[in-house]
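User: Hi! I'm working on a homework problem where we have to compare a predicted structure to a textbook description. Could you give me the structure for the chain below?
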Amino acid sequence: MDKETEERFIALETKLAYLEDFVNQLQEVSVAQSKQIDVLKQENKLLSGRLQDLSDNLEEIPNRKPPHY
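Assistant: Happy to help. Predicted structure tokens:
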């Protein structure tokens, strides 16, 4: 194998190594964001339930439109 071909192979292997590292980093970020989204969904559901409970417990809400609107 001549020197130019060998240098090209080395350059390709180097680029591939950097790309593999980059993909692994992206995957880690994606997994972390997915976990964070799941937590936020749970918090949102909990807060929505609490808000619904509070609105059900209030007899009169100021500035609330009557049911016929």
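For your comparison, note the following. Residues 21 and 51 are 45 Å apart (CA to CA). The radius of gyration is 28 Å. Good luck with the assignment!
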